């Protein structure tokens, strides 16, 4: 599995128009113009791949203090904090995180709520855990202004992690994160409902991707035209601390999953964040929707224990016989828990180590009948 994983690193940083031209000439999936025979030959080289998506990474002060202790007094080291979920994340062909907070300057200061500034070493910890791409569109994206946004994306670049949902240039804002797995070109897009009232930077209204339905579908179609076989969309939405998806989530999920072009779905998977608590998974118009993963890294006080719980989604995509389309062949969830310790660690919650957490997450995830649609608990 690891050999396969290393062979399919994330690719492409080109704009959508350039990607389209490249795919027209000779796609990196191996497809080229020439009819059914060529398409069939290309499809023969394709195989199933897994996508793992996890919840919000929100380093509160207690998390930052733990990372400083793990670094032995020299900066911050987040690798041990994530070590408990690495067995789930690292084997995935594509692993997606949600980086909720912006990064502060290398020497700090580092702050928590309400205006976050996280250590830039978070990015290295995410990469060491196995993450390939992170959504960066959230209500906290502009907590550090445009400088904080830029520091965050620069740090993710240095770590070798793709990112989507915020941008340093207009050209960057027009392209999704481009990845490759199983012979498929995968596009990752991300959007947020807002930025906590912080205005978009002057002259840079492209800096954060806002959740406007027509824009989401237009971007998904553009990604598809540019060669994406699978389109993944991360949405920062919903009502904080509410276990059930709200009316806006339900309505928007129906609208986005119904969008199609030429009889083909524009979006293959919706991944929700922001709510702090795990929400349901549901198949809507034949497309899987994760309304809310809950938090992955947080450290809430005991009264808000639910904010330390979340799910981890794992979807296996397989090629259709026509050689062009992909479908979700297997849908799974796993329970996760921010163990406040001490020491603070992110772990997988099971019936053996955190049975109450596992049961609460399971109940939330299955609350809209996903089990009948084939969702199972992963191992």
From TrEMBL:
The Capsule synthesis protein CapA domain sits at 50-300
Q: Which residues cross the membrane?
A: none
Task: Extract the signal peptide range.
Answer: 1-27
Q: Which InterPro entries match?
A: Capsule_synth_CapA, CW_Biosynth-Accessory, Metallo-depent_PP-like
Keyword vocabulary terms for this entry: Signal
| Keyword Transmembrane belongs to the record | no
Domain of life, source organism: Bacteria
What family is reported?
Answer: Belongs to the CapA family.
Name of the protein in question:
CapA family protein
Source organism of the structure: Streptomyces lycii
